[in-house]
Structures are given as structure tokens and as C-alpha cells.
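User: Can you model how flavin mononucleotide sits in this protein?
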Amino acid sequence: MKITIINGQNHKGSTYHIGRILADKLALEKDITEYFLPKDMPAFCLGCNQCFLVNESKCPHYQYTQPIIESIDNADVLIFTTPVYVYHCTGSMKVLLDHLAFRWMVHRPNGSMFKKQAICISSAAGSGMTSACKDMKHSMFAWGVGKIYTYGVRVSANSWNEVSPKVRGDINLKTDGLAKNIKKNNNKVRPPLKTKGFFLVARMLNKKSGWNEVDVTHWKTRGWDNTTRPWHHK
Ligand SMILES: Cc1cc2nc3c(=O)[nH]c(=O)nc-3n(C[C@H](O)[C@H](O)[C@H](O)COP(=O)(O)O)c2cc1C
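Assistant: Here's the modeled complex, given as C-alpha cells:
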């Protein structure tokens, strides 16, 4: 199983360790690729719209987005991690998600997403884990990811060293359960009705020429305007 971890922070604190503990229960080191933000995506989206209107390769920050996009596409499982910053994901995580807006279902989703699993992980000293996980889950859903899990942890600490043995024990148990489910569902993912419904709405829009020709062509060449569906297993 191939794993891509996108860390919404550069440092290896509580959030990183929780994501890594889960990844290590799923795959061998050689199958785990990690990114750290903002190191691996250090530029804000400029709003030039080139990704929407022409192609993602026209993004002025394509040198940063390209390897991350490739890694996401090649992975079976995506792990997104963020510490809670003022009740939300980090600004760095949001910056990456902004750069991948063209991947939203209404534009040019990648067909492989519908068979993937993603886990959104957040850690907080006190609270805000739910809204921080939602920040990431929103994009996962809109990319068409077939199965999405969220895991928010109240670590009651400012650093990994301060995290108590009780909380570490809970993390161990919870990641055991998550790993079991993820392994069980690997290669068998079927997106929920809500995702399929959203896909059909996007399909309707993309059947109209004049909507956004680049998107319309993307849908047509994959046969999604016809009867082909990206979640069908061969
Ligand atoms: C800028 C900033 C904002 C934070 N905002 C919150 C918050 O809204 N709620 C909370 O419970 N903890 C908040 N914290 C604490 C961290 O979320 C918490 O310590 C987290 O576990 C740190 O993870 P890390 O070790 O991976 O950096 C904040 C920390 C920082 C640096």
C-alpha cells in the first residue's frame, strides 16, 4: 500500500507523530512519502486562474505542485495532518489546498481519487479538532476521494514530549482501529451516495459547452459525460 503524507507543518511535533504512527501501521518505509508545508509549497495562490482556464502546468508554482500532485495520484492512501491553529488547519495547509482547486469535482477531478482513502488528522492542545479536520475533509470530498476518515486528538500539550502516556495509549489504540479498516477497504473503495450525487451534478454542468471548455474536454475524454464512471472497478 502506497501512502502520501501531507503535513500542514514543517516540524515533527504531536501532529506529525500521530500521522506517522498510522502510516507505519499501514506500509513499509519505502512506500511512505512525506511532504512538509510550507517547505514543499512555499508560495500563496496568486489567483491567476491559469489552472482553471488553461492547465495546471501553467500555475506559476507548478514546480512545487507537480511532485505533490504526482505523489497524491500514485498513492492508495492519503494522510493529511495539521495542528489546530485558531480553530482551523494551518495557513500552510490551506495554501496547498488552494493550489489544488482545479481538482474539485466541478472542474477536473482525477479519476483515481474515487478509489482512494484519505485520513484527515488534527491535534490541538484543547479544542478545534473538528473544524480543522473539516477544512481538509472539504477538499478531499470535492476531489472525489472515495472514503474519508477524520481523527482529531486533544493532546493537552504544546509539544510531543509533553504528551502523556495515557494520550499516547489512546492514539495507539485508535490508529490500530483505523489501520485495520483502511487495510480492509484497500482496493475495494466505493464512494458514498453523496459523492456520486455531487459527481452527477458536476457532470450535468460539464455536459454544457460554454461552461469551461477545458473542464468540458476533461469530462468528455474520460467518457464521464457518457456512461463511464471513475469509481467502477474492473
Ligand atoms: C498559532 C497557534 C494557534 C493555536 N490554536 C489553537 C486552538 O485554536 N485550539 C487549541 O486547542 N490549540 C491551539 N494551539 C495549540 C496546538 O494546536 C497544539 O499544541 C497542537 O497539538 C500542536 O501540534 P504540533 O506539536 O504538531 O505542533 C495553537 C498553537 C499555535 C502555535
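A couple of observations from the model: The chain has eight helices and five strands. The domain at 3-189 is CATH 3.40.50.360 (Rossmann fold).
User: Helpful, thanks.
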